[in-house]
Amino acid sequence: MVSGNFVAIDHDIFWSSDHPGIDFTATAPGGSIVFSLKGTSGDKFAFKAPKSGMYKFCFRNPVSTHETVSFYIHVGHIPNEHDLAKDG
After folding, report:
1. Which residue of 12, 15, 30, 69 is 20 to 30 Å from 52, comparing CA positions?
2. Sequence ranges of the domains in the chain
């Protein structure tokens, strides 16, 4: 399981209703998109990785203002019944 969050900070203007936000895309090895968001100033995300390998996380700013993105990611695994503690 891959999860995380991000926030984009615009240094030139404050976020307003007419600001388009940024786009976020997570791409699996082989090029398939596993998660995407459009027009946001930040959000949480989570997805089950379909395969092991290098994943690409892209942020796209459709306007020319400078943005700073704070990005947190956690890569773990989904426990199965053998990984869970059981009462004896």
Report:
1. 69
2. 2-75
